[in-house]
Specification:
2 domains; single chain; about 130 residues
Length: about 130
């Protein structure tokens, strides 16, 4: 009985960290192409209703964008030359500093401003609405 409970716990933990590359690719495609905005709005609203949050649970979108940034930095290094060490430095700095570091800074600032200054006062019987980081 103990082993069965442990295996179920491991399966739940594994599902929790599942990366949904298909859904993230669809989201990226919809954002870039802007083909059917009402369809994307319905998908996002359905996600909010089923999971209770607007944000995605997996890091798939960030992973895809990091790969795109690394590919662009690699193409830059190939086009403009330079040593292998400098190329690796450029690729790592483009992903770690320019994409992740600046993104974390901007999103933290926007999260703080929106939760501090842009929220309206709600009644005591409503659910408190806060912006997720």
């Amino acid at each position: 009985m103990h082993i069965a409970q442990d295996s179920v716990s491991c399966l739940r933990l594994q599902r929790r960290f599942e990366v949904q590359l298909g859904a993230a690719t669809d989201t990226r495609t919809y954002l870039i192409s802007d083909v059917v905005p009402p369809s994307r709005y319905r998908m996002t609203t359905y996600h909010k209703q089923t999971s209770g949050r607007w944000a995605r649970d997996d890091p798939a979108f960030v992973l895809i964008m990091a790969v795109i940034m690394a590919t662009a930095a690699c193409a830059y290094c190939v086009a403009f030359g330079g040593s292998v060490g400098h190329s690796i430095y450029t690729i790592v700095s483009a992903v770690a500093i320019d994409f992740i570091g600046v993104g974390v800074g901007i999103s933290t600032l926007a999260w703080y401003i929106s939760n501090t200054y842009l929220r309206t006062q709600t009644h005591s019987h409503t659910v408190d609405q806060k912006v997720e980081w």
